[in-house]
Amino acid sequence: MSAEPSILPAERFVVANGLRHHVIEWSRPDAVATGKTVVCCHGYLDVGQSYHFVAQHLARAGFRVVAFDWRGHGESAWVGPGAYYHFVDYLFDLADLVREVAPDGFHLVGHSMGGTAAGMFAGLRPEGLDRLVLIEGLGPPEMPTEHLPDRILEWMHGVRKVRASLPRAMPDLDAAIRRIKSQHGDLPPELARFIAEKSTRQSEAGLHFAFDPLHKTRSPMPFRLDQFRALLSRVTAKTLFVSGETGFKTLDHAERISAIEGVREVEIAGVGHMIHWLAPEALARELIEHFS
Fold this sequence. Notes:
Layout lengths: L9 E7 L2 E8 L10 E5 L10 H9 L3 E5 L18 H15 L4 E6 L1 H10 L6 E7 L12 H16 L9 H11 L5 H11 E4 L2 E4 L15 H8 L5 E7 L8 H5 L6 E5 L6 H4 L1 H12 L1
Parallel strand pairs: 3-4, 3-5, 5-6, 6-9, 9-10
Antiparallel strand pairs: 1-2, 2-4, 7-8
Helix pairs in contact: 1-10, 2-3, 5-6
């Protein structure tokens, strides 16, 4: 990280697709931004604040950086009783959000689940989109169609179990840090604390991770590669795909990425899936080059 003082974000709430979304913005306080707005989409069970370290570099380079918490994550609203988190809802949310936060045009960045959503959204050819960046975000493995009945039953069981249970509480932030470190053992202590602080909320029962427990259930509708490719094939924005040296790629990665015309791929050495957490400066360099 740079030795310069950290650029602190401004926070607000925006109603998108009927739900209140938490929006975070980084920009240089001493200068008018010279580059387009960069809209950043986080991944599964992550939060918009985790782009903080990448945003430092982008903001100093003259970009206005905006991230947000997806529905049911962080400080954004959860869906109501009887509702669920279907993937197309994210596309509608994003369509409303970019209208509000970047009416003059934008670059779009998405990590993991957020990359999948960003790629699908780009296939809708939204007005104002200039450049697209997908960070380890080309969807999960495809599931055979014949497994669909069992998957729907699994989904029903999972949702009922969540609705009948109380969220698991933790005694303090150190417990949250241990939980995060159990999944991401390569996180430095200071970064693990930052992620824990931004990913939890306090209640009378204790400390909780700030995502709707429904996210821990699997969607009843399996990922379909033919549908995903149909959207990617319509992407006209100049696209960069960023992977980590030890990150995640599906076995059919080449087939998926070939659907995006003219896509450029880069790999960042010495890092896995959470590139924006662990290699923010290297990632920011790639983004700035792509945006220019």
